[in-house]
Structures are given as C-alpha cells and as structure tokens.
Specification:
Length: 194
C-alpha cells in the first residue's frame, strides 16, 4: 500500500517517484521519470511530463500541464489553467524534441495566478507572485509582484502573500524587508539582524 493517494481515474507511468502524503486527483497523468516531493496536491486534469522535478508542499490546481524542462521548488502554487511552455519556436512540421526545450525554474514559495502564462527559459524568484492572466517573458526577482501582458513588476509581496505597500515591515506577519539598492531586489531581514 502506498503512502500517497492517486484517484482511480489517473495514470502513473513507470519510473515515477511520488512523496509521502501527496494527493493526485481525477484524470491526471504523471509521466515517466517525474519526481514529486511530499505533501503535494494535484487537482483535476493535471499532466506532469517526463523527467519533471517537483519539490514538496507544491499545489497545482486544475487543468495545468507541467512540461519537460520545468522545475518547481518547494511550496510553489500553480493556479487553475495557468500555462507553462518549453519551446520558444515550436513547429508541428519541424519538431525539435527535448534538445530544443528551454529550462524554466520556479523557486521556493512562488505563486502563479489563474490563466497566467510562463514563457520558457526564465526563472521565477522565491516568493514572487504572478497575477492572474499575466504573461511572463523575463526573469522575475524574489518577492516581486508581476502583472500584465507582458508582465511588469508592479510591487513587492511578503512570504505570507500580503502586498508590501512600502519597504519595511509586513502588515500581515511582521516580517521585515530591505531593498538592495545595487540590484533593486527585496531581501528578507534575518531576525538576528533586526
């Protein structure tokens, strides 16, 4: 008996690793070579392609395909019907196969809203938040709030998900942030440095 749950309507190919406590719901397909961590949740109609690596605590909502070349670190959230790509110049007549795939990395704690599109070849930073319907065409800094088509940074977010109205202390959880002026990136201040 396995220590994870797979609905009877889903398919799990050979050579797949699924961590303890993970739940895979209706009409999903987990393909050969996929590696999934512990305590993940996959909603209805999710496809995890060959050799995809997914960390622990990841939540993937309905109708999401995670294509080969995409990696999700721990505690990533993928909203309903959001889209990953893995080929910048796809042609049905001239398929390149996996040699043409561009890597996409979604770092720890990042959230991607419903119907957003992540164009391949980019990294989404730790705890970044991508708004619903946004189209990401560049790398995204840690804690960045991105919206629009193409997505532009419109602010910063805390690890807890609250929008930071100003650099400093989060009104939701009291974590403190500083802006690194050299790189224009947000950094969480460690408690020992407060």
């Amino acid at each position: 008996m396995s220590d994870y749950f797979v609905h009877k309507s889903s398919y799990i190919d050979d050579d797949v690793v699924i961590g303890k406590g993970t739940k895979i719901w209706h009409f999903c397909h987990i393909q050969t070579g996929a590696r999934i961590g512990e305590n993940c949740s996959f909603g209805q109609n999710v496809n995890v392609s060959n050799n995809v690596k997914i960390g622990s605590g990841v939540k993937v909502q309905n109708n999401v395909s995670i294509y080969e070349g995409v990696e999700l670190e721990d505690f990533v959230f993928c909203g309903p019907s959001m889209v990953f790509t893995n080929d910048l110049t796809p042609r049905a007549k001239y398929p390149k196969g996996k040699t043409g795939y561009k890597k996409t990395l979604v770092k720890e704690g990042a959230s991607i809203g419903a119907n957003a599109t992540i164009v391949c070849g980019h990294t989404i930073g730790r705890y970044a938040m991508i708004a619903a319907g946004a189209v990401v065409t560049t790398d995204v800094p840690d804690y960045a709030l991105m919206a629009g088509v193409p997505a532009k940074q419109i602010g910063w977010v805390c690890e807890c998900g609250k929008v930071l109205r100003q650099v400093g202390i989060c009104k939701g959880c009291n974590k403190q942030y500083v802006l690194n002026n050299k790189t224009a990136t947000m950094i969480l201040k460690e408690k020992s440095s407060l």
